[in-house]
Specification:
11 helices, about 375 residues, alpha/beta, nine-stranded mixed sheet
């Protein structure tokens, strides 16, 4: 009887251990959905849907949403010029992430479509800074110039001096011209950043200038000429100046930084090939997207058959632009979405919130 009793007890214990193990495995597979930012409930999740145009700039609009945001002056360490910025810090004493957001091509530091990033900073107790970096991209000192790049570094240092910053969690975000600048800064100062997000970026200013020749009513080429000293033609001084201001010159230096590239497949302002080629510069050789597939996208404005079906991305929710294609390799992530020249707040912030340097100065992708 004792032998039968012990056998039964052993079987019960074995059944209990197996069932608990299965429960643990099941729990490890189930991941909680990513928390959407609070503002997603307001009916907009992209800059195009935000209730202000890219051109609207009003400090009162900022203060209506984040009363604690303030204007600050930052003296350039490059030429001594005082540049304005918007700055938010709750004043709490614990170390906090820093979110650096860059305005787009034709705007300045009061650009209202960046307000949702400051809302996130307030809600999550991050520090936020929105530098001017020489304003709209229409003069030599702007447009990802030496001065503009240094202004962004100076903005980071201002935040460090005036708030409690977790230097392992300093993030950079930009769209369009801001994305161009973000990628330039990532390549020139890779030690600063724990994560960089670039929406619809320009990879090569000279190439974009050539593209815009087909659209003579656009102002961008005149602004490029004003910034770079003339019409960029192969090998001339304006072309060299454009290259100095283009991510294509520096991006390979950013291979150790987690970088999120996102582009509308059929973007009519900046072709999606700019982001695809940027991805190829950062990806492992075996993961690059072949030129023939890039050519197909440029010509047909649709994905080739080989790229279809890879559209499951955990950072994009039902109210975000529909993902058509996503791919990751090494530290770079590429998303091609259905939409226009746009930027989505939720995927940006949810992805950034998971990035952290293991040690400051040595960026790696690390989920928190």
């Amino acid at each position: 009887m004792k032998i039968l009793f012990y056998r039964a007890l052993c079987l019960l214990l074995l059944f209990y251990m197996v069932s608990c193990s299965g429960e643990r495995k099941e729990n490890s597979r189930s991941t909680a959905p990513k928390e959407p930012p609070r503002y997603s409930e307001r009916g907009y999740t992209t800059s195009k849907a935000y209730p202000a145009t890219f051109a609207e700039e009003d400090f009162e609009a900022w203060q209506q949403e984040i009363p604690q945001v303030r204007k600050v002056d930052i003296t350039s360490t490059a030429d001594g010029k005082v540049e304005p910025a918007l700055f938010y810090d709750s004043g709490t004493q614990e170390k906090k992430p820093l979110l650096v957001v860059l305005h787009s091509w034709s705007s300045e530091y009061l650009q209202e479509v960046s307000i949702p990033y400051a809302e996130w900073a307030k809600e999550k107790d991050w520090v936020f800074i929105h530098p001017n970096f020489r304003g709209a991209f229409e003069k030599p000192e702007a447009t990802a110039s030496e001065l503009a790049v240094q202004d962004i570094v100076d903005a980071v240092n201002f935040a460090k001096e005036n708030a409690e910053i977790d230097t392992s969690r300093i993030y950079l975000v930009g769209s369009s011209g801001g994305a161009l600048t973000a990628l330039v800064v990532a390549g020139r100062h890779p030690d600063i950043w724990a994560g960089v997000v670039a929406w619809v970026p320009i990879l090569d200013l000279t190439e974009w200038y050539t593209f815009n020749l087909y659209y003579p009513n656009r102002k961008y080429n005149q602004q490029i000429e004003a910034s770079c000293g003339g019409k960029p033609e192969p090998g001339n001084e304006a072309d060299k100046e454009c290259k100095k201001r283009s991510p294509i010159t520096y991006l390979e230096n950013a291979r150790n930084i987690p970088i999120f590239l996102a582009h509308a497949l059929t973007d009519v302002l900046v072709p999606s090939s700019h982001s695809i080629r940027a991805y190829n510069m950062l990806a492992a050789p075996q993961d690059t997207i072949p030129q023939q597939q890039i050519n197909h996208i440029e010509k047909e404005q649709v994905l080739p058959e080989e790229m279809q079906g890879f559209n499951n991305d955990p950072y994009f929710g039902p109210t975000d632009p529909a993902v058509l294609f996503t791919k990751e390799s090494a530290n770079v992530k590429l998303v091609l979405f259905d939409g226009v020249h746009d930027m989505a707040y939720n995927p940006t912030l949810l992805w950034l919130s998971e990035q952290q340097q293991k040690t400051p100065g040595s960026p790696t992708n690390s989920a928190l």
